[in-house]
Amino acid sequence: MTHKALVTGGNRGIGKAIAAGLVREGLEVIIGARDLAAGQDAARDVGASAIQLDLTDPAACDRAIDGVTVLVNNAGVLWDDKLFDDMDHFEATMDTALHGPFALIRAALPAMEAAGYGRVVNVSSGWGSFAEGLGGGGAYGIGKAAMNALTVIANRDTPDFIKINSMCPGWVRTRMGGAGATRSPEEAADTAIWLATLPADGPSGGFFRDRKPLAW
Question: Which of 56, 72, 82 is closest to 13 using CA atoms?
Answer without folding.
Answer: 72
